Amino acid sequence: GIIPSLAAGSNDRKWRGLTIPDGTTQLFLFVFQWKMIRALRGRLGEIMLGVVNADAERVKQWLQQANIRHYICEHCHGLHLSELQEREGGVDARVFVEEDGILLTTELELRPSALFAVQAELTRLNMAYPSIKLFLDVSDDSLPRLVACDLLLGRHGVSFEQFIYFVQATVDATVQLLDEGQEFNWLIWPDEMESGAGEALH
C-alpha cells in the first residue's frame, strides 16, 4: 500500500522520492499515473526484447518472415516444414504450439529389418545430436518410426530470434540424422512403402 510521509516545511507528501501534491484528487491522479508508468515499463520491456506469448498465427507469421517454407494440412493442427517434409525418409515434420512452448517434431520411417539396429544405436544417437530428443515409435498398424523432436520452452514468452534459432538448429540436426539414416540404410524409401509394409522383423 501507499504510506506517504509529510515532508518537512511542505504540505506536499513524499513517496519513494517523488512529490505527491496535497489533496485527495491529486493523490488519486498520482497513484493512477504511477500504475500506468509501471504497466508501460513492463510493456516497453517486452517490446524491446520482442518477447511475446506466441500462438499458432504468430508462429506462422514468423516462419513467413524468415522465408521458411511451410504449409498447413487438413488432418492436423501442426505447421508442416517443407524442407524436412520433402526429404527422403521423412514422413511428418511439424511445428506445434503447446501449453509449455513450441514443439518441433519429425518422424522418420524405418525399415522393419533395421529396427533393432536403430534401437541399439539410440543412446549413441541421442548423445551425437544433443539438440534433439530421439525415441522409437512402434505400433502394430504402421511401420516403425524414429521420432526426433525438441521443445522451445515459452510459458513466459519467446522472441522471434529465439524461435528462428530453435527451428534452424533443430532442422539442421534432423537433416544430419536423415543423412546418417540413409547412409546406414535404416530409412525406407517412398517407392518401397508397399513392399516395406510386408517386411518381417527378424
Can you walk me through this structure?
There is one protein chain. This protein is of the alpha+beta class. It is 41% helix and 22% strand. The strands form 2 sheets. The protein has a 6-stranded antiparallel beta sheet with strand order 4-5-6-7-9-8. A 3-stranded antiparallel beta sheet has the order 1-2-3. Strand 2 (13-15) and strand 3 (18-20) form a beta hairpin. It is elongated and about 85 Å long.
Shape: elongated
Give the biggest sheet.
6 strands, antiparallel
Global mean pLDDT: 80
User: Helical region count?
Assistant: 6
Strand elements, count: 9
The proportion of strand residues reads 15-25%
Order of strands side by side in the largest beta sheet?
Answer: 4-5-6-7-9-8
Low-confidence stretches: 1-10, 44-48, 196-202
Give the helix proportion (percent range): 40-55%
The run of helices and strands is: EEEHHEEHEEHEEHH
Radius of gyration computed on alpha carbons: 27 Å
> What distance lies between the first and last C-alpha atoms, to the nearest angstrom?
73 Å
Judged by helices, strands and strand pairing, the structural class is alpha+beta
Summarize it:
With 202 residues, this protein is an alpha+beta fold. The chain has helices spanning 24-49, 56-65, 82-85, 115-128, 160-183, 193-196; strands at 5-6, 13-15, 18-20, 70-72, 79-81, 90-97, 101-109, 133-137, 145-153. The strands form two sheets. A six-stranded antiparallel β-sheet has the order 4-5-6-7-9-8. The protein has a three-stranded antiparallel β-sheet with strand order 1-2-3.
